[in-house]
TrEMBL record, chain A:
It is found in: Cell membrane; Membrane. The chain crosses the membrane at residues 37-58, 78-103, 115-138, 168-191, 203-229, 249-274, 286-310, 322-346, 358-378, 390-416, 428-450, 470-495, 567-584, 596-617. Belongs to the heme-copper respiratory oxidase family. Pathway: Energy metabolism; oxidative phosphorylation. This is Cytochrome c oxidase subunit 1. InterPro entries: Cyt_c_oxase-like_su1_dom, Cyt_c_oxase-like_su1_sf, Cyt_C_Oxase_1, Cyt_c_Oxase_su1_BS, Cyt_c_oxidase_su1_bac. Its EC number is 7.1.1.9. Pfam families: COX1 (PF00115). It comes from Paenibacillus forsythiae.
Automatic annotation (TrEMBL), chain B:
Keywords: Cell membrane, Membrane, Transmembrane, Transmembrane helix. It comes from Paenibacillus forsythiae. The keyword Cell membrane applies. This is Cytochrome c oxidase subunit 3. Residues 29-206 form the Heme-copper oxidase subunit III family profile domain. Belongs to the cytochrome c oxidase subunit 3 family.
Length: 636, 208
């Protein structure tokens, strides 16, 4: 099956015998990591917007005591969907967007190890997220909290399909995350440019590597947990049903064995982004690079043995509580190392406070505050007071919003010119920063005190004259300000997109890593010649030596590219249909035909047929890809 | 840039055809990683089973239910199939596609026999012992753990059968070799999982 197309010498890409799509089909079929990054960004941004609107509705309900803006049932659905959407469908995809946009460039690769799987991971995430959010239109959203504790989430107490949307939607979205994790592990292990040893990897590549390892070992646990809960609810199994001999505490263990590593999946990439932004704008190499690497590894390792600190009040006993308290406090050590390293990087640098660096500098004290309340919560006896109060809500928003979201803003402003070829407006960026961070502290700082004063989380309203009124009002005003900050950011994106491309290859002028050595946005093949890496901060090293750019590690030659394909989209659509079919397989339908199709698993079977059929096509028809010829690279 | 042409290497295959191309090496590496995730998946299922195996809810217990001779026969079949998949990979390394195909056929046949025994076992429990998914927490955990493994075996049978078909019309190339190699890795993995199921579910069920 030698490819005739390969031997054709023609400067036009169309002559390579491979179908190139345009318009919408281009986006559906793309396997280019840079385009997949943009897909992740828009889809993640869309869900982030939904989660943000849910947050504003929650805050509006709590603006005054005994408010009746929404009822208790709707409030439960809002808090469940806010947490679930933000974590799984909002921030994780935006993390994946930046990983996709940056990691292959940073390690000097032309693509990820598995471009096809990369697309598949995106589409399964998107279809899972759509399934979960369809619940709003199809009989009510999940309402058992983002942790979905049993027996509340079991069939006995959650009779609607809400929790089914949660279990099956997250299952499908989780599959995409797992695929993405394996892909980035393989990419960083095998696709590094010559000279790019592990201890020369940029910090963001390191944290992506470690994060992917955590995904690989944490997500299968929630996969099993969701399967068990699905079986309980749909097949009548007894895993978490006490009447049948099941154990509700088992769900808590499985959920948090996944759930705690999940918070490190969220925060470690933010650590990586901060570690790229700060050295660039301090114009100094990252202080304590190797200690940063080992701190990251240590955090990931410890992250797997602290899950029961979410369960101090479950009644595991003093020995278990003490052990988990100590292991939790240990995490403060590597995290503290990181905080000091960032401070020492800034110290003595010639610092420029651009928008990315404002976000990065704002991140350090904000995240530290979240870390300090984390150590407070790690103390098991004190946790009996804090548990399920607004103190906990304040803590995790400080680490997730004050940590991760500020990190994402830093990363987005920093790499936006590399992704889109246009610099975001600095003026609007600074407006975004100040409104967002002031709004953030206004919203969540007061919640510490609300919690200490006894306000429970997840209550849909509260009585007047408990000293809750003013602080809740302040918190709601802050949430509005954060929303305003988001609007500034969206305005910035919109205005920037109307301007002609203006970003050169190194638009911040102090870029240190390989992505700043190639045009913005990079060509389809990233590197015309694979670069030779001669040290940490590869580009900076060449600049310091007076060289114009990277030294190539190979002569100019033909570049092999993977073909675009609609199969990942079809496969994910099939899984989506199968999930929907399975969810409604035990329902009564008004129409006999629809009932026949669902109750006999015909819809499920059809979905699986599409998914496995697409898999079969992928296996049977080899993708030989296509080549870009040297003449094209030279622009002839 | 590494070339990724699919045509057979003239003058025979390289010694380890599964690792001859960058794609092949990536595939093998990623499959090891995937198996790491699978290990966590089965680990969680085992932990669930161990936590719930005493909760029989007045239904049949493990000791009443299991017949070791049947399970021992199934174990024997699956362990031998793992051995035959090693023979298949050895044939692949010696570039003998016909022998490779034959050993893969034996592997698939043994896997199918194993699966047949498992289906027979499950149907006996459901029909004669009134032991179904909903009977107790123990039954749910049993069917889910052993059923997950069974589903993996079924997937492996279909997968390897399709690869036998591909081998017939694509031949043994540096594209098909990594596919066969990772399917053998998968087959060994589900074999190892079965060793744990045999010990933790069946043997422990008889004595515990």
């Amino acid at each position: 099956m030698a490819q005739a197309a390969h031997t054709l010498k023609s400067p036009k890409p169309a002559a390579h015998g491979v179908k190139r799509y345009t318009g919408l089909m281009d986006w559906i079929t793309t396997v280019d990591h840079k385009k997949i990054a943009i897909l992740y960004l828009w889809a993640g941004g869309f869900f982030f917007g939904i989660g943000g609107i849910e947050a504003l509705l929650i805050r509006w309900q709590l603006i005054k005591p005994m408010n009746d803006f929404v009822d208790a049932q709707t409030f439960n659905e809002l808090i469940t969907m806010h947490g679930t959407t933000m974590i799984f469908l909002g921030v994780m995809p935006i993390i994946f967007a930046l990983m996709n946009a940056v990691i292959p460039l940073q390690i000097g690769a032309r693509d990820v190890a598995f471009p096809f799987l990369n697309a598949l991971g995106f589409w399964t995430f998107l279809f899972g997220g759509l399934l979960l959010n369809l619940s709003w239109l199809m009989g009510g959203a999940p309402d058992a909290g983002w942790t979905s504790y049993t027996p509340l989430s079991g069939a006995a107490y959650s009779g609607t399909h809400g929790v089914d949307f949660y279990t099956i939607g997250l299952q499908i979205a989780g599959l995409g995350t797992l695929i993405g994790g394996i892909n980035f592990l393989a990419t960083i292990i095998t696709m590094r440019a010559p000279g790019m040893s592990f201890m020369r990897l940029p910090m963001f590549a390191w944290t992506t590597f470690i994060t992917s390892a955590i995904i690989l070992f944490a997500f299968p646990a929630i996969t099993v947990g969701l399967v068990l809960l699905t079986f309980d609810r749909i097949l009548g199994a007894n895993f978490f049903v006490p009447g049948g001999g099941g154990s509700p505490v088992l769900w808590q263990h499985i959920f948090w064995i996944f759930g705690h590593p999940e918070v490190y999946i969220l925060i470690l990439p933010a650590f990586g982004m901060i570690s790229e932004v700060i050295p660039t704008f301090a114009r100094k190499r990252l202080f304590g690079y190797s200690s940063m690497v080992f701190a990251t590894i240590l955090i990931a390792f410890l992250g797997f043995m602290v899950w029961a600190h979410h369960m101090f009040t479950t009644g595991l006993g003093p020995v278990a509580n003490a052990l988990f308290a100590v292991s939790t406090m240990l995490i403060a050590v590597p995290t503290g190392i990181k905080i000091f390293n960032w401070l020492f990087t800034l110290w003595g640098g010639s610092v420029r406070f651009t928008t990315p660096n404002l976000f990065a500098s704002g991140f350090i004290p904000t995240f530290t505050m979240g870390g300090v309340t984390g150590v407070m919560l790690a103390s098991a006896p004190a946790d009996f007071q804090f548990h399920d109060t607004y103190f906990v809500v304040a803590h995790f928003h400080y680490v997730i919003v004050g940590g991760l979201v500020l990190g994402l803003f830093a990363g987005l402003h920093y790499w936006w010119p590399k992704m889109f070829g246009r610099m975001l407006s600095e003026t609007l960026g600074k407006w975004t920063f100040w409104t967002f961070i002031i709004g953030f502290h206004l919203t969540f700082f007061v919640q510490h005190f609300l919690g200490l004063m006894g306000m429970q989380r997840r209550v849909f309203t509260y009585l007047p004259n408990q000293h809750f009124d003013t602080l809740n009002l302040v918190s709601t005003i802050g949430a509005g300000l954060m929303g305003l900050g988001m609007l500034f950011f969206l305005a910035n994106v919109w205005i920037t997109s109307r301007r002609p491309p203006d970003a050169g290859s190194d638009p911040w002028e102090d870029g240190r890593t390989l992505e700043w050595s190639i045009p913005s946005p990079p060509p389809e093949y990233n590197f015309k010649q694979t670069p030779l890496v001669r040290g940490l901060d590869a580009l900076w090293k060449e600049k310091a030596a007076g060289n114009k750019g990277m030294m190539p590690a190979e002569p100019i030659g033909r570049i092999h590219m993977p073909s675009a394909t609609p199969l990942p989209f079809l496969m994910s659509a099939g899984i989506f249909i199968a999930g929907l079919g399975f969810m409604f397989s035990r329902d009564d339908f008004a129409s006999r035909l629809v009932g026949f199709l669902f109750n006999n698993y015909i819809v499920t079977g059809l979905g699986l047929l599409i998914a496995f059929g697409a898999m079969l096509m992928r296996s049977l028809y080899d993708d030989h890809g296509w080549h870009i010829e040297p003449e094209e690279l030279e622009g002839r | 840039m590494t070339t990724t042409h699919a045509e057979p290497v003239h003058g025979g295959l390289p010694h380890e055809p599964e690792k001859a191309t960058a794609e092949g090496r990536n595939k093998v590496l990623a499959f090891w990683l995937f198996l790491g995730g699978e290990a966590v998946l089965f680990g969680t299922l085992f932990a669930t089973f161990l936590a719930l195996r005493g909760q029989t809810n007045e239904g049949p217990s493990a000791n009443e239910l299991f017949h070791l001779p049947l399970v021992a026969a199934a174990t024997f079949l699956l362990l031998v199939s793992s051995l035959t998949s090693v023979f298949a990979i050895q044939a692949m390394h010696r570039n003998r596609p016909k022998l490779l195909r034959n050993w893969l056929l034996v592997t698939v046949a043994l896997g199918a026999c194993f699966l047949g025994l498992e289906i027979y076992e499950f149907s006996e429990y459901v029909r004669h012992e009134e032991f179904g998914m909903t009977t107790s927490a123990f039954s749910s955990a049993f069917y889910t753990l052993v059923g997950f493994h069974g589903a993996h075996v079924a997937f492996g049978i279909v997968w390897i059968s399709l690869l036998i078909g591909q081998l017939a019309y694509k031949g043994l190339t540096v594209v098909t070799a990594p596919k066969i190699y990772v399917s053998a890795m998968y087959w060994h993995f589900i074999d190892v999982v079965w060793v744990f199921i045999f010990t933790v579910v069946y043997l422990l069920g008889k004595v515990g």
